[in-house]
Amino acid sequence: MSDTLNHSLVLASRPDGSPTPANFRMEETPIPLPREGEVLLRVRYLSLDPYMRGRMSAARSYAAPVEVGAVMEGGTVAEVVVSRNPDYREGDMVLSHSGWQEYALSDGADLRKLDPDEAPVTTSLGVLGMPGFTAYSGLLTIGQPKPGETVVVAAASGAVGSVVGQIARIKGARAVGIAGGADKCAFVREELGFDAAIDHRAPDFAERLAEACPNGVDVYFENVGGKVWDGVFPLLNTFARIPVCGLIAQYNAVGVPEGPDRLPGLMRQVLSKSLLIRGFIQREFVDQRPAFYLDMAGWIREGRIRYREDIVEGGLAAVPEAFIGLLEGRNFGKLVVKIS
C-alpha cells in the first residue's frame, strides 16, 4: 500500500434548503493503522441515497444527525488491504458502512463478505442491498399486494421503486410506476415490465394516472410526497395500504407549505376509507433479511428482477455534485460513485 493520506468529505455546514457543494469539505488525515482484531478498508464504491439529506439536518429524526466536521456516512463496498482480524484476509471484498472517505477501520462486526463471482459487488449497495431490502420488506410487510390489485410506486426508476414494482408483478398485482421524464418512463415499462408508467412532469399528470388506474389504487408505495401524493390520494381504494419510505420532494423544505391546511381532509379519508398509512425504516424488519437474500438472488437469476446502476467516475471529488443531482432526480438507476 503506497498511499499515506486518507481523503474524506466532512459536513462543513448544515444546509438551509437544498444542499450545495459548500456544505462539504475535503480533508486529509494520515491513513489509520489497524490494531489487533481490526482491518483497514479501502473504499471502492460509495452508495448515495436520499436518506443522507436527513442526516445533514439537526432536526429530530429516527437516526442521529451527522455532526458538523464529521465524515458523511454511507454504505460502501471496500477491499481489505491490511488485516489483523483472523476472519478476514487481504483482498477480501466486503460490504461496509465506511462513509464518504477512502480508508476506514473496522473490527469486522459490521462487515459482510462479498463474492464477486456470484454478483457484481455494486449490487450489494442496490438491488441486493439496503434499497432492495427496503422495497422487499416495505411492500410485502405493509403493502401486502394481492393478485389483481393495483400497486402504484413513486420514483419507479430508482433503486427502491424499480424493485417495488417488479415484486408487485411477481405477486400477481398490476404495477403502475411514476417517474420523471420520457426516458425513465420507457425504462419502467419496457425494461422493468411495469403495466404502466406515468411522467409526473406532465401537465396532465393526475388525469394520466387516473386513466392508468381504472380500478383505483390498492397499494401506494410512497417515496416522493408533494404533487405525486396529490395525484395518488384521490384514487386510493377502501382498505388501501401506504408504506411511506421517503418524501424526497420535501427534504429541502425550509418551512410549512403555503395553502390551506389539508390535514383534516386527509384524516377524514383515512377514517372513511380505512386507510393504512405506515412509515418504516428497513432495519425494523432485519429478521427478513435471510429470506430477502434468497428470494432476490433467485428472482435475478430467473430474470424476474432487473436493475440499473448509475455509476459515477471521479472519486470523492465527484460525490457532492452527484448527491445534489440525486436529490434533483438527475440520476438514472441506483447511484454509486467509484471511489478508487
TrEMBL record:
Region entry Disordered, spans: 1-28
InterPro entries, per database record: ADH-like_C (IPR013149), ADH_N_2 (IPR041694), ER (IPR020843), GroES-like_sf (IPR011032), MDR_fam (IPR045010), NAD(P)-bd_dom_sf (IPR036291)
Gene Ontology MF terms in the entry: oxidoreductase activity, acting on the CH-CH group of donors, NAD or NADP as acceptor
Alphabetical list of SUPFAM superfamilies matching this protein: GroES-like, NAD(P)-binding Rossmann-fold domains
This protein's UniProt keywords: Oxidoreductase
Presence of keyword Oxidoreductase: yes
Domain Enoyl reductase (ER): start-end pairs: 19-337
Pfam families for this protein: ADH_N_2, ADH_zinc_N
Entries under SMART domains matching the protein: PKS_ER
Protein name from the UniProt record: NADP-dependent oxidoreductase
Source organism per UniProt: Haematobacter genomosp. 1
Lineage, uppermost ranks: Bacteria, Pseudomonadati, Pseudomonadota, Alphaproteobacteria, Rhodobacterales
